Amino acid sequence: MDDKNLKKILNKGGSVDLSGNRLTGYNIKLICNYISGNVIVISLEK
């Protein structure tokens, strides 16, 4: 999943869990703030 597709999902509001994403090799958990649309990265591990 590239950044553009990720932003499209997050802009819609909601949360995305990319734990163990094989494409990036990172374990990422993102929470999208419904009100402001800000993305909070709570976990980023290689």
Keywords:
single chain, 46 residues, 1 helix, alpha+beta
What would your notes on this structure say?
The chain is α+β, with helices and mostly antiparallel strands and 46 residues long. It has one domain. It is built from one helix and three strands. Strands 1-2-3 form a three-stranded antiparallel β-sheet, covered by helices on one side. A hairpin with an 8-residue loop joins strand 1 and strand 2. The chain is globular, with a radius of gyration of 10 Å. The two termini are 16 Å apart. The model has no long low-confidence stretch (mean pLDDT 56).
Overall 3D shape: globular
Main pleated-sheet profile: 3 strands, antiparallel
> What class, by secondary structure content?
alpha+beta
Question: What is the topology, as strand order, of the major beta sheet?
Answer: 1-2-3
Please indicate the percent range of residues in DSSP E strands (runs of 2 or more).
35-45%
Low-confidence stretches: none
Topology at a glance:
Blueprint: H1 3-11, E1 14-18, E2 27-32, E3 39-45
Quick structural summary:
With 46 residues, this protein is of the alpha+beta class. It has one domain.
